[in-house]
Amino acid sequence: MDRLQSMRVFQQVVDEGGFAAAARKLDLTPAAVTRLVSDLERHLGVRLLQRTTRRLALTPAGEVYLGRLRSILSDIDEADEVAHAHSREMSGTVRVLALPVVATHIIAPAIAEFQRLYPQIVLELHVHDAVDPNVEDYDLTVLNGLFPVPSSAIVRTIVESQAVLCAAPPYLERFGEPASPEEDLRAHRWLRLRAPGTRLRSMTLIDPTRQDRTLEIEVPVVVHANHTDTLLRATVHGAGISSQPMDLVAPLLKSGHLKRVLAPWITNRLSLIVALPTRKYMPARTRAFLDHLVEHTRHTLSGLGMPEPPTL
């Protein structure tokens, strides 16, 4: 008896709900499937399935055995995948779910270099506002730390970030650069993010160099929107001052398209996270993309006084 094959066939019979369906799935004859399950029961000395003309049901012994069997077969498949990864070129598809702003400013700039390193890996990128992301449907789900994630998911932090105040040089040439939060901010034009169904509150400023001293300031708002990228584009084109995540605007600060104002004041502490399915084994191609994303983010933030992302 091929014990491993019998175990796989038994699991398939239960999953498909019958011998004929399992036979079609496994490309075997129904007689072969029946024989392999019978061989397994004979080897164990216990009946695993109750068979009637109308239904198929697990016996108590079969239910306990199947629970252990799933874990064993999963470990065998994982071991096979690990071994195969050492003998084949990195290839396959990595399915990624990301928020629009994260996909545009974090993932998209990292793709070209990843393609150069791993030309056989295909990235399947799904972009939408995932209020309740179905993490199990993707290899990686990249979100900001404010989004709810299922408790069953494995969550890892890509980078700890901060929200900083920034404006375009032409705007600052026209309106001047604020030097004091208490005195200067009310004289400027503000672009602010507002979630649907909420009202704008006073601006919160935090000074991390002085034990997180906090100020609450009312500022004149000329544009409010529920879309981060819209406010960012308007800021780049000189519409006013806005608060933006440092990991998003780092390239624009380095290029000079934006300038940080009122440093070291920040408006919030943020995190960029990745949520992974509950399965224990992470395919090598998924690990490669995750490592590349972390490294690219680290390089982007270098020189801006930000803490480096943790090692995943």
From TrEMBL:
- Coiled coil residues, start to end: none
All copies of the HTH lysR-type domain together span 1-59
Which keywords fit this entry according to its UniProt record?
DNA-binding, Transcription, Transcription regulation
Under CDD domains, the record lists: PBP2_CrgA_like
Give the similarity note.
Belongs to the LysR transcriptional regulatory family.
What is the name attached to this protein's record? LysR family transcriptional regulator
Give the organism, scientific name.
Ramlibacter alkalitolerans
